[in-house]
Amino acid sequence: MSEKTEAAGAVSDDGLAERHNARMARKKEVVDKKIAAAKRDAGVLLVTCGNGKGKSSSAFGMVARALGHGMKVGVVQFIKGAIPTGEEKFFRRFPEEVSFHVMGEGYTWETQNRERDVEKAQLAWARAKELLTDDSIGLIVLDELNIALKYKYLDVQQVIADLRARPAMQHVVVTGRGAPPELIEAADTVTEMQLVKHAFAAGIAAQPGVEW
Amino acid sequence: MSEKTEAAGAVSDDGLAERHNARMARKKEVVDKKIAAAKRDAGVLLVTCGNGKGKSSSAFGMVARALGHGMKVGVVQFIKGAIPTGEEKFFRRFPEEVSFHVMGEGYTWETQNRERDVEKAQLAWARAKELLTDDSIGLIVLDELNIALKYKYLDVQQVIADLRARPAMQHVVVTGRGAPPELIEAADTVTEMQLVKHAFAAGIAAQPGVEW
Fold this sequence. Notes:
The structure is a homodimer of 212-residue chains.
Chain A (H helix, E strand, L loop, with lengths): L2 H5 L6 H24 L7 E5 L5 H14 L3 E6 L8 H6 L6 E5 L5 H4 L2 H19 L4 E7 L1 H6 L5 H9 L6 E5 L5 H6 L2 E9 L15
Parallel strand pairs in A: 1-5, 1-6, 2-3, 2-4, 4-5
């Protein structure tokens, strides 16, 4: 065992290493089988929901991944829009690669006007449909669409029909609290971001680069 | 109500709009109070854990946010590294802004060599410590560090001590399954990404731009 290892206090002995290697070999078998079974290439419909932090940011991480693979990306933000976010400022640097549309006016509890929220959501969906019929776009982020569906600003069946009609290899990520069950049913990959704790509770304000 | 709204089948009537507005007004009060209470600026320690998709991608979304706000970012990938990812290819475009370190050799069940995994993790931590003592770096991603802690490749108390000693305004995101309770206790914001479903189960292979 190297000095470096001891210095940082890692736990290690020969028995542990052997057991670890045996366990990893079994794990490799399981993982290999799973991967071998998942062979089909297809556009994936992802939904991120729940009360925890990470829904929109995970979608924007996928934007970075997609750009790294040379794909073109579309983003429609349904609710956010009152203040310019870090993600907007950053991805607008690449107008050839990212088509970025901020269609909201802040969270609905800030606007307090249902008619206006509905109209804004309809306009945003029209923009989303343009992206959903463009097969040069590899990944689309529909940020906070779940909230627009939760408050019935949009009809969930129409939204699902439009999503199903998209190009076969196009990926779509839908984010936000309150994802309707019909959308979860239609999706391929769904993650519920569970709040374990949040810095707000410790009195820390929303920090640029973290929350926006 | 506009024709556009009716065309997309949104549910709306005057009573609904009134109830909605009253509800949103109450919600605004609650949210405003919470935000007013969270006033302190501080570097945030975030942990993303759980079995669902979105742990690393949410960290990389925060990288995009931070870059949008003009911050410098450091990334250390503890486990991944066997294949070049989209996030690596993309963020390496900005060497002045992002210091990107891939220190792993793939998942541990691929390597099956504990000694080597421990050594790699120690080297990765040494790199992380350089970033954690550099106050020009606003956000650090320690990708899959949780896995290195889970397998005791690193000592959790030493890791927490080093995290606590970082510059006051530096944000750190730690990702990966199996976050140890001590790290969750030390963190400000913790999200557990819960697997609701995954495209693998439907036979869809890991897609570039989504999983890597």
